[in-house]
Specification:
This is N-methylhydantoinase B. InterPro entries: Hydantoinase_B, Oxoprolinase-like. One of its GO terms (molecular function) is 5-oxoprolinase (ATP-hydrolyzing) activity. The chain is α+β, with helices and mostly antiparallel strands. The protein has 14 helices and 25 strands. The termini are far apart. The chain has a domain of about 210 residues. The longest helix has 29 residues. Helices cover about 25% and strands about 20% of the residues.
């Protein structure tokens, strides 16, 4: 390492550096000093007593760019080391095998510094526990949705937070949260699909000190494990997460000790400033100024009959008003305003999401990865991180309390994936309207399925899996097959599940014809067959079983989610996508088909060679090639033969049978069933 990187590499601006305890009251956007009686409160009615989101060093502070790279690389390394430690020492399949957890590193202004994945928020911890009272070895815990400031979506997501110290003061935080097997509630797995209140969903824990100066709070741990159907797994997972975050805190403390606090905090500011400038220059500049509107829907909430639960975004791109000043933007750079007005009232069932906290801070970082699709190349898109640097570029406007995104306590939330996943698609769709479709078609790449009962030894078991689906076709390529929205996640290995649970995995492959047809086809979903060896109960928390992942610019919608029990048997039946305890007898087969991504562009323009390849790979059937692509083929899967002349004739016929202008979005046949026979929404047209 070069010597200059080990010496003072930071140059402060003439103004004094921001104080260690937070920025001055004058820097608050609302101008109200912290601690005053008239200081604002968060939507939960709890005091927001700590300044957050501001710079650590004054504008104009510079730092050695080589050291910035070292710091950024160290942050990524520590984050990965924390996740690796959790994966290797946890016990539950959801954490250890499916990798449904995330780590994150935040500075003392609560800003997320790492960008490999999303994470929860530190805000609720600092809200309830002053920094000055924190000690080395402390570990904080919470999972209460309504006291998490929007960082936790449902109770099975348990979050641990560890402060990092330098010279006796808190300088950063290491945090991890993950989806755990069971935290109590009405059904195994703590995700009752028909819940009407949060009280049915499990144990809610507001921020507490779980470890005090390195000593675990055994009473609190006993309360949590006593409420779980899987107490041993829960205890082991929490121990793994606490220990891993404590290890990560030690690693970060070494970084501060090596280079000094001023230098590291200047590097933190530079990392986030660079993200802000990159997205302003490379991403927001691609969206024309103006206002665009689109909406999409969840289809059921587990309580009411299926209907359209609207999620609407009005997107406004403003050339000025964002952070920073320059010759091009003397009043500040471009900014996106995301207005959720028009979103449906909160549901009776558990599909609500608490998004309207801290100005939508969590949702900004959750939605921002969609914007990366506007990068110049796929390679550049993969290089762009999403950290706190994107937050100043986005303003969110929420409707009044009582909607899907602003639910009122104690509305249930365990299936909030129906809302936050849909919002990814709504943002992609509204941006697609602004940029002539240069965004991917829709995807629905997460749903929970599982079985539970007694194993062959008479012991209780729970097998729950988070299966992915196909991603949407893109303007330059097909969608990807069987992806998952959670980075690094995976389906459970067959060797593990068959050895631990009483069933056999008879098939795991791609669901043929599930990808939406298009010039660029949507990715395929899973098809998985489980043959039960013992009587059991099947559970499912899934959406897009009536509706489908939409296609764009002539592309068609993908196939919907579907579960069939007793496949090929006398009791064969399709079960509802929201199910808590569907009976399955020993010997019966459960078939799970997950969603395919939407298609991009006219499928009748897809090159014949690409359709031949899909036939050869088994991704499209011969019937599907004719029906969806107008391609006439004979032969076998190994040796398909395309009749080019007959295909051109069929394509000409199919084009002639189209009536009038086509909508910009295709929602699939299920939409009409919930929209009183309408095949398109008003917002589906340019």
């Amino acid at each position: 390492m070069c010597f200059s990187c080990q010496t003072a590499a930071v140059r402060l601006a003439p103004a004094d550096r921001a104080g260690h305890g937070g920025t001055s009251p004058a820097s608050r956007p609302d101008g109200i000093p912290a601690g005053r009686d008239d200081a604002p409160v968060n939507p939960a009615g709890l005091p927001t007593a700590y300044e957050h989101g501001n710079r650590l060093t004054p504008e104009g502070t510079t730092v050695d760019p080589i050291l910035v790279e070292i710091v950024e690389g160290t942050l990524a390394s520590v984050e990965m080391e924390v996740e690796t430690a959790i994966a290797r020492t946890s016990r539950s399949p959801m954490i250890r095998d499916a990798h449904d957890f995330r780590a994150g590193i935040h500075d003392r202004q609560l800003r997320k510094l790492t960008g490999r994945s999303y994470s929860a928020l530190v805000h609720p911890v600092v809200r309830d526990f002053p920094l000055a009272e924190m000690e080395e070895g402390d570990v904080y815990f919470h999972n209460d949705v309504y006291e998490s400031e929007g960082g936790i979506g449902h109770l099975p997501d348990l979050c641990v937070t560890v402060p990092v110290f330098a010279d006796g003061e808190v300088v950063a935080f290491v945090q991890a949260f993950g989806h755990h097997d069971d935290i109590g509630g009405g059904v195994p797995g703590s995700m009752p699909s028909h819940a009407r209140s949060v009280f049915e969903e499990g144990l809610s824990v507001p921020p507490i000190k779980l470890w005090d100066k390195g000593v675990p709070n055994e009473a609190a741990l006993r309360i949590m494990t006593r409420n779980s159907r899987m107490p041993d797994s829960l205890a082991a997972d929490l121990d793994a997460e606490c220990s891993a975050c404590l290890m990560g805190a030690r690693r970060l403390a070494e970084l501060f000790e090596r280079y000094g606090r001023d230098t590291i905090e200047a590097a933190f500011d530079t990392i986030l400033d660079r993200t802000t400038e990159t997205y302003r220059r490379e991403i927001l500049s691609k969206i024309p100024d103006g206002t665009y509107v689109w909406e999409d829907y969840a289809e059921h909430d587990g309580v009411d009959e299926p209907r359209l639960h609207t999620q609407r975004i009005t997107l406004t791109k403003q050339s000025t008003g964002g952070p920073g000043r320059s010759d091009q933007y003397p009043e500040g750079g471009p900014k996106l305003v995301i207005d959720f007005t028009g979103t449906a009232p909160q549901a009776k069932g558990p599909i609500n999401h608490c998004g309207d906290y801290v100005g939508g801070n969590f949702l900004k970082k959750w939605l921002a990865p969609i914007l990366r699709n506007l990068a110049d190349t796929p390679e550049r898109m993969a290089e762009l991180d999403v950290n706190e640097g994107i937050v100043p570029l986005i303003e969110m406007r929420f409707p009044e309390k009582g909607t899907l995104l602003t639910p009122i306590y104690p509305a249930p939330t365990n299936a909030r994936t129906f809302v936050i996943l849909r919002l990814l698609g709504v943002l992609a769709g509204v941006v697609a309207k602004a940029v002539d479709g240069r965004m991917p078609a829709d995807q629905e790449t997460i749903r929970y399925t599982g079985v539970y009962g007694k194993d062959r030894d008479g012991n209780d078991y729970l097998m729950r899996e988070v299966l992915g689906g196909g991603s949407g076709g893109r303007y330059y390529a097909d969608g990807e097959d069987t992806i998952h929205v959670v980075p690094d996640s995976r389906n459970l290995p067959t060797e593990f599940t068959e050895s631990r649970f009483p069933f056999i995995v008879e098939r795991l492959g791609l669901a043929v014809d599930s990808g939406g047809a298009g010039l660029h086809r949507g990715g395929l979903g899973y098809e998985k067959h489980l043959r039960m060896l013992q009587d059991a109960r099947f559970m499912s928390i899934a959406d897009r079983s009536i509706l489908a992942c939409w296609g764009v610019k002539g592309g068609k919608a993908g196939a919907s989610f579907e579960v069939t029990i007793d496949l090929g048997g006398p009791d064969e039946r399709v079960v509802d996508a929201l199910a808590d305890a569907e009976p399955v007898r020993a010997g019966q087969v459960i078939r799970i088909r997950t969603t395919g991504g939407g298609g991009w562009g006219d499928p009748l323009d897809r090159p014949l060679a690409d359709v031949e390849r899909d036939l050869r790979w088994g991704k499209v059937s011969f019937a599907g090639a004719r029906r969806d692509y107008g391609v006439v083929a004979t032969g076998t899967i190994d040796e398909p033969v395309i009749d080019a002349e007959a295909s051109e004739q069929l394509r000409a016929q199919l084009r002639s049978e189209r009536f009038g202008e086509q909508p910009f979005f295709d929602r699939g046949p299920g939409y009409a069933a919930l929209a009183e026979g309408r095949t398109t929404a008003e917002v589906d047209w340019l």
